[in-house]
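From: lab user (bench 3)
To: helpdesk
Subject: output format question, protein + pyridoxal-5'-phosphate

Hello, I'm new to running complex predictions and I'm not sure whether the block I got back is the full result or only part of it. Here's what I submitted:
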Amino acid sequence: MARRFASRLSLVGASQTMAVKAEADRLRRAGREVIDFGPGEPDQPTPEPAKAAAVRAIGADFTHYTSAAGIHDLREALARHYAERSSQSIGADEVLVGAGGKSLLFAAMLALVNAGDEVVVVAPYWVSFPEQVRLAGGTPVFARTRAEDGFTIRAEAIEAALTPASVAVIVNSPSNPSGGILPPEEIARLVELCRDRDLWLISDETYEALVYDPADRASLLEFRDRLGGRLLFVSAFSKSWAMTGWRVGYAIGDRELIRAMLTVQSHDATHAASISQSAALAALERAADAPRQMLEIYRCRRDRMVEGLNRIAGIRCPVPRGAFYAFPDVRELAARTGLDSSRALSEALVRECAVATVPGEAFGMPGHLRLSYATSEALIDEGLARIARFAGA
Ligand code: PLP
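Helpdesk reply: Thanks, we reran it on our side. This is the complete output you should expect:
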């Protein structure tokens, strides 16, 4: 008997980054040695203080429901941490802890977007932004960034995408997949724009700890007072502290907005796991240096990956300014190898040389591949050598 599913499912596709992971896993089970540039997660271990705190939490039977907004100590520690960094006042009740940044962004969409509303998304985009907008009944409208401009996020491009139906703008700096950033000089214009047009500004700063040049380090949180309650800041322990599996993210916004998102969350995940919240608090308080240490490791790998890619004929790769992804233009390589798209190239690379990448089609920018360099230098070298052989270099 044919099963009937809800019509909203026809609006979205399964995560293509997860599809690459499934293919890499299949090849591995079949005995192939896969070089996996697919994953969107750190290869570093979770810091020891976080692991120890989780073990202590289990031993102390801290294994029941917590407050739906997150444990008070963690909300307070996050409020303190970000108030200090942004020179803004932030109360613990303006912080919402959730089961990963993704879940909080989805709660925001459900709390803010009505049917027919438009949300501006900067492209290339993280795979879940447009899908979350669609699942909430809205329409994503794309503001492009350009490889020639280092994928810099420009207020002008966002302004050009606005219509009377726009209710929100989502920016993600540094960007997954491009590594582009919203530079300090663009922030003021974007803030004015959102204030003048009365738009929500959702700033996904999940990769905030991974910005390579200190001059590029600016957070929209520093402009919170100028946005008059329109800012929602979202981040997570996932990338900065190598804690993807623990599922702890957080959002900072005005009380009313946080309450609205909490209403959604209280009927969904309820809260992040109690044990994970204990681990996150320990990461913040006792492993404060871990993100900086990881950044230096990623910097060496970034340089190796980008230099190696640019040595391969038919590949052009700008230097990413943040996160841990290279996002090269591979149109020439695809054409030279008789393939008609970056998707076909990505499929050929995994099939013929067991190198997993994610095609730009997944991020709204065909002609490119995303390669994660959150992997060892030896694996980066081996993967690049295989791609170079494939390219006939
Ligand atoms: N935002 C961006 C741009 C991401 O790349 C990710 C994860 O890949 C997330 C949010 C969500 O992170 P998590 O839900 O693991 O905290």
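A quick orientation on your result: The chain has two domains: 8-45+290-390, 48-286. Let us know if anything else is unclear.
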